[in-house]
Design goal:
By secondary structure, this protein is α+β, with helices and mostly antiparallel strands. The chain contains twelve helices and ten strands. The protein starts with 6 loop residues before the first helix and ends in a 7-residue tail after the last helix.
């Protein structure tokens, strides 16, 4: 098992780091967060640099990377802002669902514009009554001439208001059968007639934006049904491990960004005639933060390595996502405490990390859901 970074990966990370330092410095990110506006020009720079294309096969315009490459890339992007990385992660997740489940004509139609940055794709799963229990979704797609009519509501959709956004939407198409057979996956323009977006006022991740979406007889052409009618659950499950591995990488990146920020601050901030980083009470807490981030990163690298080999890594990915997300929350809280009132000020990125981290233990599988899943994989749950 070799977790060393290859020369190609080093070049990828150097390119990503340079791009972010040039086009997304902390002051700009803070302004985007304050204005609650996503930097479309930054996303275009990612596409121009090949970051979106990287993990996809060359035959569809990709660069042939794997899950380990994506994990490192997402980690690097998230050091600056896990919020900014969300639309990137969604594009990869949705693109791979099309790659795995779409017909050849659908792959040829949708993947090139996604990889070039011409369009974006966001995930629409949760509903007011269907969060961790996705089987309880009630949004319904009824057959009509040439396609389907969507009626219902989705909630907590990240980035739905971005320019040229398409929703990778899951809806019931048959209420008489189990969720495994009665859910289908659709692609629909987020600004199609019958689709209404409402941006929600959330604690964190304000650049990407979180949306509530209403569907009232919104028409979806039949060729925008992915995987066939009744196969949406299989589509969703086929990408779940990948989504959680990417989520773990994002939390690792955000957490490392926190540690880097507090370490630099501790060597600059003077109290009692010396940098606070020289005080054992401070330095030991920062050392514990770094150790915890490194442990989360090792879990993430193991999971992404297994995934890149095509192995079933559900338990390893669940453990990585659980620990990395809780680590991000923990170190962000520690960072605020160690910076004192400065940690709550917009002059520093710490307060933004503190807000953004809170959703890490909720999105892509709550900590409670993941613990339940891990326990089951350990054989600790009994059938009822």
């Amino acid at each position: 098992m070799d977790f060393s970074v290859s020369e190609e990966q080093k070049m990828l990370l150097d390119t990503t780091s340079t791009l972010m330092s040039r086009h997304a410095d902390p002051a700009e990110i803070g302004k985007w967060d304050l204005d609650r506006q996503y930097p479309e020009e930054l996303y275009a720079k990612w596409a121009e640099a090949g970051l979106i294309q990287f993990p996809f096969p060359e035959e569809y315009g990709g660069l042939g990377g794997d899950a380990a490459d994506v994990a490192l890339l997402v980690e690097e992007l998230s050091k600056s802002s896990a919020d900014l990385c969300m639309p990137y992660s969604s594009a990869i997740f949705c693109g791979f669902n099309i790659l795995r489940n779409g017909r050849e004509a659908q792959k040829r139609r949708w993947l090139p514009p996604l990889l070039s940055g011409e369009i974006k794709m966001l995930i629409g799963i949760s509903e007011p009554g269907a969060g961790s229990d996705a089987t309880a979704m009630s949004t319904f797609a009824s057959r009509t001439e040439g396609g389907y009519l969507l009626n219902g509501q989705k909630l907590w959709v990240t980035g739905a208001g971005l320019k040229d956004a398409y929703l990778c939407l899951y809806a019931k198409t048959d209420k008489t059968v189990s969720h495994r057979d009665g859910v289908s996956m659709f692609l629909i323009d987020a600004r199609a007639p019958g689709v209404t977006l409402r941006k929600l006022d959330m604690l964190g991740r304000r650049c990407s934006g979180t949306y509530e979406i209403f569907f009232e007889d919104a028409f979806v052409p039949e060729d925008q049904l992915i995987g066939g009618e009744g196969h949406g659950w299989q589509c969703l499950m086929s990408g779940l491990q990948y989504e959680r591995a990417v989520s773990a990488a994002s939390s690792c990146g955000g957490a490392q960004g926190v540690v880097d920020l507090i370490a630099a601050y501790a060597m600059e901030r003077q109290q009692f005639g010396q940098p606070i980083g020289t005080f054992q009470a401070i330095s030991h807490r920062i050392a514990d933060m770094q150790t915890r981030v490194d442990a989360a990163r090792m879990l993430m690298l193991r999971a992404s390595w297994l995934s890149s080999r095509g192995e079933d890594a559900l338990r390893e990915i669940s453990e990585a996502k659980l620990f990395a997300s809780e680590t991000y929350v923990h170190v962000a809280g520690e960072g605020v405490q160690l910076m004192g009132a400065y940690g709550l000020s917009r002059e520093y990125a710490m307060e933004r990390h503190f807000r953004d981290a809170r959703s890490a233990t909720i999105a892509a599988g709550t900590s409670e859901t993941l613990r339940n899943l891990i326990a089951g994989l350990m054989g600790l749950k009994q059938l009822r």
